[in-house]
Amino acid sequence: MNTSALVLPVERIKTELERLRQADPRLEVFGAGAHQYALRSPLSESDVAAAEQHYGVRFPQEYRCFLLEVGAGGAGPFYGVFPLVKQGTSWVWEGDGGDMCSDLRRPFPHDQAWNLDGHPLWDSEPDEDDPRFDSESFDDAIEAWTEAFEEVYWSPKWTAGAICICHHGCALRTWLVVTGPERGNVWYDGTADRAGLRPHVASDGSHMSFGAWYEEWIERSLAEFTASGC
């Protein structure tokens, strides 16, 4: 599916977001206390074009439309969508991890779930019960292994071509793919839990676009209040 050509249902999103805001005055939805259902003012066409020029890419259509007609960031899944803001002569995403994007012009390297599959590092982690180690030598071994593991596992090359747009808490995040076959889709980042990267998926198993991910959050949150009779 060519997610870059999808059209964002702007008016429906605005209407449903207002319904959710009215349904949740106590900010009980996870993360709502952080964004409080507030949206940053939308960006102008010239602003979006300047940000795209800064990074050397064109944003996927749904996300571009969100920036232009819904908001530059704010209310959204988990702790909200990271706002895209201008700082000096640069454009950046504000949020815990918003500065993690590397080269957006390089294609995102995944089309299915990834967790450093088959890499020998997974099998070489020192075991504290290994009789070859005493406490001191184990500490040295695990320190050396951790350094080698982190250099490989958290290399920015694994998220090249994607924007970090959302924080779930505990260093878990969501990325929006900008370049490559997954362009326009959103991916969950569980590397903080050594769970790798995987696409957010819809009920039919398809990879979620930015718009589908955003609307699914509104619908799921509204359903929680409906089910509870609120």
Write up this protein:
The structure is a single chain. Helices cover 33% and strands 13% of the residues. It has 230 residues and is of the alpha+beta class. It has one domain (3-228): 3-Layer(aba) Sandwich (SMI1/KNR4-like), CATH 3.40.1580.10. The strands form two sheets. Strands 3-4-5-6 form a four-stranded antiparallel beta sheet, with no helix packed on it. Strands 1-2 form a two-stranded antiparallel ribbon. Strand 5 (186-189) and strand 6 (197-199) form a beta hairpin. Helix 1 packs parallel to helix 6 (210-228).
Provide the helix percentage: 25-40%
Q: Output the CATH class name.
A: Alpha Beta
Count of DSSP E strands?
Answer: 6
- The name CATH uses for the topology is SMI1/KNR4-like
Task: Describe the global form.
Answer: globular
Largest sheet: 4 strands, antiparallel
What is the subunit organization of this protein?
Answer: single chain
Short descriptors:
230 residues; alpha+beta; SMI1/KNR4-like; four-stranded antiparallel beta sheet; two-stranded antiparallel ribbon; 6 helices; 6 strands; 33% helix
